[in-house]
Amino acid sequence: MVLLSLWWLSPTGDALDVVSAFWRGSFGTTSAFFSGTLVRAIPLALIGAGLCIAFRAGVFNIGAEGQLMAGAVAATVVGLEQSFGPLQLVLAVLAGALGGAAWAGIAAVLKRKYGVLEVISTIMLNFIAANLVAYLVRGPLQEPTAVYPQTELIATSARLARFVPDSRLHLGILLAAIVCAGAWWFLKETAAGFRVRAVGASPSAAAVVGRVDVPRVTARALIVSGAFAGLAGGVEVTGVTYALYENISPGYGFSAIAVAILAGLRPNFVPLTALLFAALETGALGMQRDAGVPSVVASALEAVVILATLALGSGVLKRSLAGQAA
Amino acid sequence: MTTSDRGESLALELRDISKKFGAVEALTEVSLKVRPGSVHALLGENGAGKSTLMRVAMGIVTPDTGTVSVFGRVSLGASVRSAAISGLGMVHQHLSLADSLTAVENVALGGSGRFDPRHVAERLRAVATASGLEVPLDVPVKDLSLTQRQRLEILKALAADARVLILDEPTAVLAPAEVRDLLAWIRGFAANGGSVVLVTHKLREALSVADEITVLRRGRVVFEGPASGNTEASLTRAIFPEVPTSRNVAAVSPGEEVVAAKEVSVTDDRGVVRLRSATFSLRRHEIVGVAAVEGAGQNELLQAIGALRRPASGSLRLPGRVVVVPADRHRDGIIQSMSLAENLALRGVGPARGRVPWSRVRERTRNLMQRFGVVAPTELELAATLSGGNQQRLVVGGALEEPVDVIVADNPTRGLDLNSTAFVHEQLRAAAAAGALVVVHSSDLDEVLSLATRVLVVYQGGVREAGLDRDRVGGLMLGAA
Q1: Residue A261 needs a FRET pair 20 to 30 A away by CA distance; which of A12, A200, B330, B425 works?
Q2: Is this structure's pTM higher than 0.80?
Q3: Is A82 on the interface with B (CB under 8 A)?
């Protein structure tokens, strides 16, 4: 059916054209795969792993996009300094994580002090973050020539190494793998991770039988997921864009929600689902470029997958939350 | 549409109902006949099939074979709506009301078409007056007491023209005076031509109110007949092949003081003072029974001793190892979606650091299953798959797995059959003998009295020492000087 609709939408009326354009855009060529799909999968995996932790704790952090922006800003500020020396890269990436954590921290404080639902506050903070970036790249952080609404390039010592010749693939992919593995281990093996799962599954039982400080666990889960999103922002700046500008994220923070849910909130499956969504996005771009399928169709296709994921997801979610073996 | 083959039409007739869940035969050719204007008690231990049978009657569960007829009409296609249309209503043990909605809104939830609050309120008020069940209609359900919520559930069924009521363990959460009121109401409802199926564990209640009794054991009818001529002993023999006896342990003299409260006041979630200036001293080896009618402040007392709620004022000294067996095991006691091992790991995980020693936890769970008789294929089984009795054994086992200083048990045998109840009692007595202080509250006064070595009565926020005399304790619960 998807193929049929593609055929119908294709200006040349050739479905095969569209499919092959999709394939070339995502997996088909080395450059598409290494510079496009894999590079896009990195922030999706980083954010997705963090969202697994938040969602498992029953915290609906919809603000990863804003937290990513906050992280990108923090990483850019550190990256623009010229005097940090060899540790600058590490500092810039860490600053990204801190920026994201702080941005999520606002929602955490609002929740604890005033009982503001995180679903509302994190969405609102997304808008604030986007406008903050828009202001910064036209004001305090704008490049010296003041032509484009973007910052200067960050110092070379603040850039993540690219290790596949002629591609944009950067070391962030290792970081993403480590973060996913770490999140998986955290949830499965540690007492703190178990508290997260218990609080998500039954806050009252966690409090009564487990003597768990539930508000504290949910606040921390929210902040940790913000840190992961901020890390993704830092990694985008130091690994891909080298500068801050508006629209630095094509909605990674939102796609990552579907990435986490499709993975059944299991961080060990996040790399796979992140890759899938990255391929979907790059493939859609390829269709637009090569087969003339308009970008609207590309985003519609993405939305269909996200909706289907969510529809299936409720089942997946139930099953995965239905306690995996210890 | 067929009529019953008997001359008179029965209010509710279940004929030859069989139901298998997987390989488990939950019901085997069970028949139940409820005459109009009668009270029919359905007895049996946990897992005997009572709930399943009633769910079949309500159209929640579709039987493999057999038919359900209400007033002679065979219900076609199982659905709750068709059950309601045919005049059948059920009040579940775990009440199912929307907390933030008012009584009127809750009743309107089940309806269809336009929501006209005045119309629903009028109807409800008429039904309430006619039935004698008074409930405040305009306040959110969360501000109603359990008794009022239960009345509301009954009203909800009556407002939908139910002439046959199924009440599942309706007295489990009620104080003795409230139980008497409810049983009297049931008799009156039947006297006016209504029919009631009373699902219960409490033989005394069944004998006092029922016209007819059916006993299920392992999904089969093992007794059916008029209530008159039966005794608690005869019914116990029908329910259980062997009669479990409650073993009275020789009283151990109290040990050192472990809980000392001086002028302790405790507030509830809304900041209302529920316990006022309570002063008491509790010692090891004691089984302290807490007796109170609902809402007298016993919840706050138990939560304070259980270290779940800080006193608003006064000094309360507690030892280090305090465990709680909560009243609502579904909400507070276990996590249904987690395995048995994970549920055991949950206990006291709040301050834990580092890794969870899963292989050790699993081993502990296996030992616990053996020691406390939790029946499950493995320790990785989900808690949700266990029967109520097994879940409670898991909760109690988790609490008593290791020696503790204080165990606070709130209605620890709620909804359990006699065997499981005896088991829990035995464990609590053993814990006290081993040196723990046991604080136990039950809405069943006889249970408190059978366990306790001393009794504290809570009345309107005040705590008073009472003896073990039933009349004295009952009097204090109702405010006697």
Answers
A1: B330
A2: no
A3: no
